[in-house]
């Protein structure tokens, strides 16, 4: 099992400093929020993409991929009833696929609740069709870039669309492409009635990526969630992907969040 960390955890640290510290702590991968490079992926030139990729490689880290795909963007919406908005959103996902490829990554984690929550008079069923339309339009670019989109269910605190792993499974089935798989997040799964290890077993066949965090929005081991059965379930189902640490509460400080999270995960390994 390979451990990575999301780069926004480092806040305002320069990339080389952040990458070096992550590697010293034992991480093998780095996962990018695109807005930490530029809020508009179209405005990230080839030279900057190559520079960031080289900085990660020089620190001994593999670029995992991207998440927070639509955060801080304007004019894009996954579940819009307007065909033109969906087309623009699909085109932007295609550009993010190219950015991911250029950085050396393979996974796009599609969360971004503020760009997918239900709009007025749009039902969840309609939103599922709109989201499927956006992603299906992007599939040829995902194939060309050798990138997989991982749909991320999120809990009710984040929004009102795609709130369960089963809903994510349903959307993936609607899209019908091996380039669209499932992402599971511990904080999000903690809001479901089904225990987290059982959700992992139920959806193992679609699982492409995994985020480790606690329900309290801090790193693994910084709250009440026991990761021993979670990591055991991942090993049981033969999960070979990345386990990326993603946090939302930075109060403990960068060093503690980065170092203590991976130390705890290692202790929990079967």
Topology:
Blueprint lengths: L1 E5 L8 H11 L3 E4 L13 H13 L3 E5 L16 H21 L3 E4 L13 H22 L2 E4 L13 H11 L4 E6 H4 L6 H7 L4 E6 L15 H9 L5 E4 L8 H15 L2
Parallel strand pairs: 1-2, 1-8, 2-3, 3-4, 4-5, 5-6, 6-7, 7-8
Helix pairs in contact: 3-4, 4-5, 7-8
Describe this entry's structure for a reader:
- The protein is built from 9 helices and 8 strands.
- With 270 residues, the protein is α/β, with parallel strands linked by helices.
- Strands 1-2-3-4-5-6-7-8 form an 8-stranded parallel β-barrel, surrounded by 6 helices.
- Helix 3 runs parallel beside helix 4.
- The longest helix has 22 residues, at 124-145.
- The chain is globular and about 45 Å long.
Strand content: 5-15%
**Sheet with most strands: strand arrangement:** 1-2-3-4-5-6-7-8
Give the helix/strand class.
Answer: alpha/beta
Mean pLDDT, rounded to whole units?
A: 98
Rg over CA atoms, rounded to whole Å, is 17 Å
N-to-C terminal Cα separation, in Å? 11 Å
Overall 3D geometry? globular
What is the helix content? 40-55%
Describe this structure in a few short sentences.
By secondary structure, this protein is of the alpha/beta class.
Describe the structure using short key phrases:
8-stranded parallel barrel; alpha/beta
